[in-house]
Structure formats: C-alpha cells, structure tokens
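Practice problem. Given the sequence and the SMILES for fe (ii) ion, write out the predicted structure.
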Amino acid sequence: MRIVQMSDIHVGSGLFRPELLSAAIEETNSLQPDLVAVVGDLTMEGYRWEFEEARGYLDRLECENVVVGMGNHDARSVGYRHFEEFFGMRERAVEVPVQEGEAKVVSLDSTKPDLDDGEVGREHYGWLDSEFRDWDRGPKILMIHHHIMAVPGTGRDVNILQDSGDVMAILRELKVDIVLSGHRHVPYVWSISGVRIVHSGTASSMRVRGTMPPSYNVIEFNEESVRITLREPGKGEGEPLASFARAAVTTSEFYPDFDRFVTYDMLPFLKDPTDESSSPPGSS
Ligand SMILES: [Fe+2]
Ligand SMILES: [Fe+2]
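Answer key:
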C-alpha cells in the first residue's frame, strides 16, 4: 500500500506557494498511491473562497481515494460549513482496497470552532472502537490534524490534543497501525506502544519552523515493513524519514484493564438505559 500524506497547504495565507502545491500534486499523481491523505489546514482563515481554491487544486489529484480532513484553520470563521460544502463529511470512515486486502481509514475532526486547540472528545471514542477493533482485512489508519505527541523542533507546545492520553490508550488497545497528523508544520515520526504517529510538514506554505522546508510524506506498506520518505515539492525523490517492521514492535506489556483508564461516552440520544447491549465494546 502506498499513501501520500500532505497537510497544512494553507491556501489563502500570504505565505502560500501555489507552485509548491502544484508540484506536490503532480508528483503525487505520478506515484499512483492507493490513498492521498490531506490532514487539515487547507485554508488560512476558513473563508469560502479559500476552500473553493483548495478544492480546485485537490481536484487535480487522480487518486481514487483522496480523504480530506479538517484543521484548526478550517474551523475559523465558521469555515466548517464551507468545508462540508466543498469536501463533504468532516469525519468519515472509508475502506480503501490495497494489495493485502482493505485498509480502514478513519478521518476524525479534532477541531473546535475558532480555537487552535484540539480534542478527540469522549463522544468519539466508541466510534473509533467500532471502526477499528475487529478490523482484520488490512492496515488501520487514523487521520487527525492535531498532534497526540509533542513534535520536536516546533518551539513551545500549546495545542497538543487535550485528551491525548486517553486517545493514545485507545489506539494502543485497538492496535491502530498508523496515525497521520499535521498541524505542527514539522515532519516527524514517533513509534510508541505499537502505534506509529506520522506528522507531515506544511506542503505548500512558507509557514515553516526552524530548518525544515515545505514537505510531504510518502508512506509504503508491504508485508515486512513500513517506510516513510520525506519529499520537498519539486525537489525529486526525497530522503528517508523513518522505517518500521510491518508488525508493530511492542516490547512491553501493560497489564491493567483498558477500561480502568478509559470509558466511552455515548451521545444521550443513543443511550437506552434499559438495554445493556447498547453499550459499545470496551465500556463497562
Ligand atoms: Fe497549519
Ligand atoms: Fe493546524
């Protein structure tokens, strides 16, 4: 399976560079990935014209499976309404045919209108569980704009996912293979408790930090390994960013039951107090 991960394209920013986005799109088309994951911050201020322009660019992607997620900038100025107009559902689960079967891709909206902070929120936990727990047909992939783990080289950390501990425990419990995130504008990879957390930089803006240039990631899954390559748009084949064994490397065990730490909230209208079976799996 081949994934192109890009994020933080920031159409509408004075620092947006259209030639970088065009190059990233052309290169993506020539890579013929199974999935293009665009992990939020399509815009700068969430304005309609920014979404329209972003859609115009992303329409040039030839891949059949392009999944676009929300970023905090897209939630500014009630921009989520325009997101829905141009890109459809803000969160979704899709099944992507790949060589080894089918990948499950869940794209989750971690934004709050007008805030830079992010949260998954307890009301989403049961959904994540229902999508991932029994999935055995191929890779399990979560797309989420905000960072679960702090990203080095990005200065002081202020917008980390507010419920990152609970989310990490859920991803570990559900054996999620890979998390695709953006937001910090610096490419980085963590592997922790069997979960690989992969950040892309900003694909097409000069809103960069430190020495990291605009970039995107190419991720290759095969039977033995997961390899991630960092590419600068317009600058060739890129450089290796990280590689892992395909099977998650977990050299530790953690013994207490999952639900001693995390419980799943259900939306009130989904609850039936008389029905024990209405509880989602993993709840108690
Ligand atoms: Fe961004
Ligand atoms: Fe962001």
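Check your answer against the key. The radius of gyration is 18 Å.
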